[in-house]
Amino acid sequence: MRDNDWNDPDWRAAAHTWITGRLADLGTPVTGAIEEFRSRPWSVTHRAPTAAGTRWFKANITGCRYEAALAEALAGIAPGATLVPLAVDTGRGWLLTADAGPTLRETMSGTGRIATWTAMLQAWSALQRATVAHVDRLCALGVPDQRVSLLPGLLAGLLADPDIRAEVKPGVPALSGEYARWCAELAADGIPAALQHDDLHTGNVFADMRFFDWGDASVGHPFGTLLVTLNGLHDALDTPDRQALLHRLRDAYLEPWTDLADRATLRRSATLACRVTRVSRALSWQRGLTGAVIPVDEMFRDAPAAWLNELLEPTTI
Fold it and tell me: What region holds the Aminoglycoside phosphotransferase domain (predicted)?
């Protein structure tokens, strides 16, 4: 039985036995059939009915299975800020949670979007500040270490992959020296490494501002989270004042960090972090696609190279 091969009937039986046993231990036994809810190349989710409501099981591909240990650790590091697991198997990367209701994406109204996004970004900053003292522990749990000083070497490793190298634009390898200079400047800004979600959007935050979905997360420059978040908000905003609103949202995120640097430095770091974190995105896609359990859609296959090609483009802020 391959590690976390959710197409294998024996694996599925073992997972269902674990789910059933853990829920029985918790006094909420399964009341019906456990069903596969979503299967992707990098993770699978099953739904288990109980008298206390739906329970969710998640397993990740080997390169992302640290999510279970990370979710468990965050429950103690930032109480109330994340979805607390009901049970975990850190060795196998299995995670069991209760249903937590709708996400921000499902509940957010058009008129209150800016206020909601502001609250989300500031809540996320607070969670990140709580993780600063724990980054070595998180790395020891398997969370990828993608601190800024390591990124130039990690970029070189990606470019050494012949499959990725074949898809990147010629200008990307030539950018390596400048990329290293961006990283050096960012590393000197005085902002400590923290948990970096790497896929933070309104679909990964519950309506009560609890965060979840850690399969892309890493330890890195905290402001790198803004790459995906602000790109998503940029696309959601279709108004003449879009850029001003993005700056306002960026500044709301940066507000909890103003004790560490002046606003001009923080804004410069946010721009640099959004640019260099494109390598982190490429790495997260590489982890999620390596040894994929099910066939990878063509739209995902070249994602690592696509993110590296973004290094040639300006940021949204």
Answer: 65-254
